[in-house]
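Renewal narrative, Specific Aim 1. Our central claim is that a sequence can be written position by position from structural information alone. The example that follows is taken directly from our test logs and has not been curated for this report. It begins with the structure tokens describing the chain, in the order in which they were read.
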């Protein structure tokens, strides 16, 4: 800020030579700031800042040659500065593109929309400011093409950077400073093209724009938030609204309308704008359309997954299980008779875990049960969570004998203790089985209902089982009391 204030003062009170001196010092100050910021922030991704340093170095050479030329030859430049100037602008343009690409989220639709709007906004700037000035100066066609390509690229990047700065918020000051540097560069180019080397206020405005661009670029690099300028932003997806679609549609018709307006007044349409404008915009529109189609497909897949799966365990839900079982039985309806078994699993002592340790412990138990149940069965079996603590497994090609073996494997797997936050949680499970051929080729709902009934039958049988008789044989009793009981006995004595 101090350097900027000093240079603006020098630029304001001095003449043409002081203007060149201030521009040279501004580009040098920005270059020093960028080099220093690379050591201060230690960027993980340095390529954009390396390109900025290269671009500022080349433009510093341009300013130095211009200053020497003005001092020695009375304002007539004899140095070949054009190659350095073009290379410097290309380096800064490439750095800006890398920053935009890096800062854009995984869904870069907002950035693409903003770039399209920026390109559309460039069309009136070209048609009503730059093009008339170039025509009045009788510049060659290749100069027209270069200026148009430059303004289209700069305005597209400017639109993208504006959207990135809005998403970054007020805390990312370096993003706003970088955006300000691009704004000053565009304003400087427009001022230079429309006024040329005309001395006076117009030349001063052009120089101030370029100087402000240098200083803002250095400030963006040196600011404490400059270390995060090239870091990827958080992923987000904004649903396109009617307003956004309207703006997007208006941007698409802006170039044809602006380029064709002269023909309404009996003049030739702007062929360069009508040719180069769509070449810059159509690829971005195609990318955006492809992005929307991909997002739509992804949203459809996510909705389908959520409709058919349990959020907690990732297993299929009751609806999906019934559908898969129905399809499986339909495919085998005309095949030779085969068997299929359903295992209905109901957890025992699950509610006390929820009541004592909370729902987090209960959720972990359910996730662990889902993993163990899937591991205990075959890959071809369908495992589902159909209730709070109820699970179903459809096992095609399994007869009654194999079903009993699977049931035992499931019970052994699910009754193992579960470790949660240093606490061992123990649960039980009751498994009921039903086999299609054995039970009369039952329909899917009947087969599952039969397995449910078998599960409740096993649960009732377990609860009504006689207790183990108490041993009354003196020989079987322990000859010595446990330590705790010995202490209690001594206390009574």
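The sequence written for that structure reads:
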């Amino acid at each position: 800020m101090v350097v900027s204030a000093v240079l603006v003062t020098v630029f304001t009170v001095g003449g043409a030579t002081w203007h060149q001196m201030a521009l040279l010092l501004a580009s040098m100050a920005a270059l020093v700031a960028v080099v220093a910021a690379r050591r201060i922030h230690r960027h993980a991704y340095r390529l954009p800042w390396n390109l900025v340093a290269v671009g500022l170095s080349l433009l510093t050479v341009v300013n130095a040659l211009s200053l020497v030329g003005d001092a020695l030859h009375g304002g007539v430049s004899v140095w070949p500065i054009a190659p350095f100037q073009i290379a410097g602008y290309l380096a800064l343009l490439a750095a800006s593109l890398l920053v935009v690409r890096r800062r854009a989220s995984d869904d870069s639709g907002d950035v693409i929309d903003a770039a399209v709007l920026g390109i559309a906004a460039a069309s009136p700037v070209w048609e009503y400011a730059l093009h008339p000035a170039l025509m009045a100066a009788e510049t060659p066609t290749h100069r027209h093409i270069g200026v148009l390509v430059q303004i289209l690229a700069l305005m597209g990047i400017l639109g993208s950077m504006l959207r990135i700065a809005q998403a970054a918020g007020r805390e990312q000051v370096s993003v706003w400073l970088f955006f300000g540097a691009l704004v000053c560069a565009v304003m400087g180019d427009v001022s230079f093209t429309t006024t040329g080397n005309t001395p006076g206020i117009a030349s001063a405005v052009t120089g101030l724009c370029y100087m402000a661009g240098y200083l803002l670029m250095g400030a963006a690099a040196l600011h404490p938030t400059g270390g995060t300028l090239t870091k990827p932003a958080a992923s987000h997806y904004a649903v396109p609204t009617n307003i956004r679609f309207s703006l997007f549609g208006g941007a698409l018709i802006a170039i044809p309308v602006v380029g064709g307006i002269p023909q309404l007044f009996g003049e030739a349409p702007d062929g360069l704008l009508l040719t180069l404008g769509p070449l810059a915009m159509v690829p971005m529109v195609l990318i955006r359309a492809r992005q929307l189609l991909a997002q739509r497909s992804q949203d459809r897949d996510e909705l389908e997954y959520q409709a058919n799966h349990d959020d907690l365990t990732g297993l299929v839900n009751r609806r999906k299980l019934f559908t898969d079982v129905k399809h499986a039985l339909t495919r085998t309806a005309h095949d030779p008779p085969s068997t299929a078994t359903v295992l209905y699993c109901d957890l025992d002592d699950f509610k006390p875990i929820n009541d004592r340790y909370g729902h987090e412990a209960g959720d972990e138990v359910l996730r662990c049960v889902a993993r163990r149940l899937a591991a205990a069965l075959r890959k071809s079996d369908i495992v589902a969570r159909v209730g709070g603590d109820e699970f179903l497994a459809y096992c095609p090609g399994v007869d009654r004998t194999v079903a009993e073996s699977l049931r035992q494997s499931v019970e052994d797997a699910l009754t193992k203790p579960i470790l949660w936050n240093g606490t061992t949680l123990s649960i039980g499970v009751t498994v009921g089985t039903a086999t299609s051929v054995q039970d009369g080729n039952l329909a899917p709902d009947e087969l599952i209902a039969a397995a449910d009934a078998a599960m409740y039958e096993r649960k009732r049988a377990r609860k009504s089982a006689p207790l183990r008789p108490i041993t009354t044989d003196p020989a079987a009793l322990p000859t010595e009391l446990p330590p705790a009981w010995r202490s209690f006995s001594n206390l009574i004595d």
